[in-house]
């Protein structure tokens, strides 16, 4: 007889009916949980078909405090503010907070590789999945990207491997860690959500905080903040670096990427690829490749499986295609290349995009601000761009307002700068000023929530606009 799930008969309230919330609303009733969903949007805005969620109760158009009365567990989706009055009430009543990632990890029969970072975690997660498949494993990739995975628990086998991207929003609420946990980098991000950099770092650190001595942590030691988390490592440590030869992990020697120690199938150093073999632009993507090699090489220490051979890593790396909305070439027209980097929702990501190009740039920036520093990246943008187009409505929390104020102080020349109201006008202006050999780069530096559901919708709109030129 199957063991009863601890959620059976318990009242579970799901805050947010996006991708994660919908997955929970489908899965929770299958384990006998009394499921309530609350969302600030209406049923019409959500395009909700209640018959698809039998037995689930909905509170829509807001988050009423009565929704949490009598609740045993609160599941908070990533985009939901944690300072909602209903959530504050839940805290005063000591109701347990959790989310889809934690519930999945508690029940998953297969080993889990968890990956987080301020930038690059999606590319690294997908590359890790591809490398593992080359190594002959059946792989499930999801979490903060694609499929939340909670609904696949009955299908996943103990012989499979799960690769999860984990965001700071998810990790902030989690009290479990995966068997293999990787932190690629930590730079200022989501401070509008976490309040302070310390809170943000602590959220990221949860990915390794609950590991056991039999687990593996993979850290990007070139990052000063990440390297300071080494004392939290309870088990084996693997690392990756562009600048230093690491004893266990992945590193660069000249133009070559090598694995050594615990990341090598025979503990000896092996060349994986030349940098020129990597089909992705930018030093940040070199770091993503290094991270993927360290993770897949060392994962055997925690999973009792063979690590991946360098030949399989190399094949997957050479075949890897850029993930959409990440320096994605949309079109080449009249000698002009249009690039979609809508994922750049922070100045740090914009800086990485700028460093990836030597061609003359027409740069499109805008969106909603996350209370992050902009001065340094705007100086870089002035140096790297022949023309900068700032788009978006004015407002205290808008990138356009903050950026234009800084440009005014920097005394940027007017002929290098345009300001428009929206992305459509930005693309039109870029088409006017760009010339043969230029790159038109959408790398906004701000979130999309001022005008779009998410960065993907913004990127898709950019694709549509460019296609119509």
Summarize the structure.
The protein is of the alpha/beta class. Helices cover 32% and strands 22% of the residues. The mean pLDDT is 92.
The count of β-strands is 20
For this structure, the CATH topology of the largest domain is UDP-N-acetylmuramoyl-L-alanine:D-glutamate ligase
- Percent of residues in helical segments? 25-40%
Content of β-strand: 15-25%
User: Could you name the CATH class of the largest domain?
Assistant: Alpha Beta
Annotation field: number of helices: 17
Q: Give the CA-based shape.
A: globular
Quick one: biggest sheet?
9 strands, mixed
Q: Over the alpha carbons, how many angstroms does the gyration radius reach?
A: 23 Å
| Poorly predicted regions | none
CATH homologous group name of the largest domain: Mur-like, catalytic domain
Question: Quick check: average pLDDT?
Answer: 92
Written description of the protein model:
There is one protein chain. The mean pLDDT is 92. 32% of the residues lie in helices and 22% in strands. With 469 residues, it is of the alpha/beta class. The protein is globular. A nine-stranded mixed β-sheet has the order 7-8-6-9-10-11-12-13-14, sandwiched between helices. It has a six-stranded mixed β-sheet with strand order 15-16-20-17-18-19, sandwiched between helices. It contains 17 helices and 20 strands. It folds into three domains: 88 residues, NAD(P)-binding Rossmann-like Domain (Rossmann fold), CATH 3.40.50; 216 residues, UDP-N-acetylmuramoyl-L-alanine:D-glutamate ligase (3-Layer(aba) Sandwich), CATH 3.40.1190.10; 140 residues, Protein-Tyrosine Phosphatase, Chain A. The termini are far apart. Helix 5 crosses helix 10, helix 5 packs across helix 12 and helix 13 runs parallel beside helix 14.
């Amino acid at each position: 007889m199957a063991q009863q799930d601890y959620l059976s008969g318990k009242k579970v309230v799901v805050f947010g009916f996006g991708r994660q919330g919908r997955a929970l609303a489908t899965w929770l009733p299958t384990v006998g949980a009394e499921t309530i969903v609350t969302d600030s949007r209406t049923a019409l805005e959500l395009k909700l078909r209640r018959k698809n969620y039998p037995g689930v109760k909905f509170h829509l158009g807001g988050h009423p405090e009565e929704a949490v009365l009598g609740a045993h567990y609160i599941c908070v989706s990533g985009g939901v503010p944690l300072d909602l009055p209903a959530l504050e009430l839940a805290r005063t009543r000591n109701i347990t907070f959790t989310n889809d990632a934690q519930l999945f990890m508690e029940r998953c029969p297969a080993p889990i590789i968890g990956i987080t970072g301020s930038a690059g975690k999606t590319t690294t997660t997908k590359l890790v999945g591809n490398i593992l498949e080359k190594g002959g494993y059946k792989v499930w990739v999801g979490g903060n990207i694609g499929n939340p995975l909670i609904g696949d628990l009955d299908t996943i086998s103990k012989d499979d491997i799960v690769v999860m991207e984990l965001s700071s929003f998810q990790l902030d609420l989690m009290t479990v860690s995966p068997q293999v946990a990787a932190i690629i980098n930590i730079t200022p991000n989501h401070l509008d959500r976490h309040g302070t950099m310390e809170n943000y770092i602590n959220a990221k650190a949860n990915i390794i905080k609950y590991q056991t001595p039999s687990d593996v942590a993979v850290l990007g030691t070139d990052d000063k903040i990440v390297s300071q988390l080494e004392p939290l490592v309870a088990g084996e440590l693997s690392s990756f670096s562009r600048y230093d030869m690491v004893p266990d992990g992945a590193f660069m020697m000249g133009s070559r990427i090598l694995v050594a120690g615990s990341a090598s199938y025979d503990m000896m150093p092996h060349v994986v690829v030349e940098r020129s073999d990597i089909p992705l632009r930018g030093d940040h993507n070199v770091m993503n490749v290094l991270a993927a090699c360290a993770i897949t090489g060392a994962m055997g220490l925690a999973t009792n499986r063979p690590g991946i051979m360098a030949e399989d890593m190399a094949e997957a790396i050479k075949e890897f295609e850029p993930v959409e909305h990440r320096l994605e070439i949309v079109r080449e027209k009249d000698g002009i290349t249009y690039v979609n980097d809508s994922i750049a929702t922070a100045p740090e990501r914009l800086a990485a995009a700028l460093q990836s190009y030597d061609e003359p740039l027409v740069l499109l920036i805008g969106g909603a601000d996350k209370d992050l520093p902009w001065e340094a990246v705007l100086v870089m943008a002035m140096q790297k761009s022949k023309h900068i187009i700032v788009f978006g409505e004015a407002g205290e929390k808008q990138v356009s307002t903050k950026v234009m104020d800084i440009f005014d102080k920097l005394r940027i020349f007017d002929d290098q700068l345009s300001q428009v109201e929206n992305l459509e006008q930005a693309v039109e202006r870029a088409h006017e000023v760009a010339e043969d050999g230029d790159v038109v780069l959408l790398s906004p530096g701000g979130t999309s929530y001022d005008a779009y559901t998410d960065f993907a919708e913004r990127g898709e709109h950019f694709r549509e606009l460019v296609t119509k030129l």
